[in-house]
Amino acid sequence: MSSNAVRTTVVNEGIRLAVFESGNPEGDPIVLVHGWPDTHELWSHIVPQLEDRFRVISYDSRGAGESSVPTEQSAYKLARLASDFYAVADAVSPDAPVHVLAHDWGAVEVWEAAAQPQAKDRIRSYTSISGPNLDHLGKWSQSRLRRPTLTGIKQVLAQTRASWYTVTFHIPGLSTLRIKRQFAKGWPAFLEEFSGVDPKLVNQNPTLWSDATNGTNLYRANIIPLLTNPRDRYIDIPVHLIVNTEDVAVRPYHYDDTGKWVKNLTRNDIPAGHWSPISHADDIARLTKEFIESLD
Question: For residue 99, what are the β-bridge partners?
């Protein structure tokens, strides 16, 4: 994160959210939303590339970093997280819509926000990385199982296999064991093995272990309900998909139906793993800026 970032606090539903702002005070606001098990520090290689053009705002999501940590599982439902996003957007830019760049569960959360009625007035554009709309994912899976083809079945099985770890996250003792095993060699080593990230680029945040364990509530509160009973979620704002073709957790083909739900959709594929905001920061920053500039 930029060394000159100003830290403030936004309170929503009793949750204190740590918010960080830097960049051009006259620029368009862009809000960066991290996923599991990261904090706002995920964006440390991207923020400097946006600061000339934008007011750059990031925040620690509930349960992570310097923000409050609710203990009840229901506090991690997507509707609550979308409410946090809007609280931050309203606090930092009450009179103008914001651009958004989000990754992993941050992207899942913003998909939820983007489907709400106020999105057209509060979100100017949304760039999503490695975080599916869970309703769209559920609909995609169901459509291929109802009208099966060999390719469709293979794709659903491949995504299921890639997401198998989420099953273990639903079981408290097993989830803790899995996280310990994943991070046994340290976070930089895990990112190198899982996502091809150069360990020298990784800054391990001091709350990583607690953030990872607290964040399993995201999986428990949302995945089964939304994948088994997905809603029709139409999106009216401009959406930009940055698809990591080498992402072993979120397979790229599940986005093939996104155009059915998003009126204004742009897609860019890059040869990157899941943590592309670290490994491919230059590409993420460039593609995000190009997309936003295309809307002017």
Answer: 30, 125
What is the phi/psi pair of residue 215, to 5°? -70, -15
Q: Residue 257 gets which letter from DSSP?
A: G
Residues 101 and 187: their CA atoms lie apart, in Å, by: 23
pLDDT in tens, the chain (296 residues): 556 899 999 999 999 999 999 999 999 999 999 999 999 999 999 999 999 999 999 999 999 999 999 999 999 999 999 999 999 999 999 999 999 999 999 999 999 999 999 999 999 999 999 999 999 988 877 877 677 677 766 666 666 655 656 656 666 766 777 777 777 788 999 899 989 999 999 988 899 989 999 999 999 999 888 888 999 999 999 999 999 999 988 888 889 899 999 999 999 999 999 999 999 999 999 999 999 999 98
Spell out the residues 6+ positions from residue 206 whose beta carbon is closer than 8 angstroms to its own: none
CB 62 within 8 A of CB 68: yes
Query: 257: which 2 tokens?
Result: 């139906």
Cα 290 to Cα 286: distance, rounded to the nearest angstrom: 6
* d(C-alpha 115, C-alpha 97), whole Å: 15
3-state SS, residue 156: helix
Q: How far apart are CA 275 and CA 51, in angstroms?
A: 21
**Among candidate residues 4, 62, 45, the one with its CA nearest the CA of residue 288:** 45
**In the chain, what is the greatest distance between 2 CA atoms, to the nearest angstrom?**
54
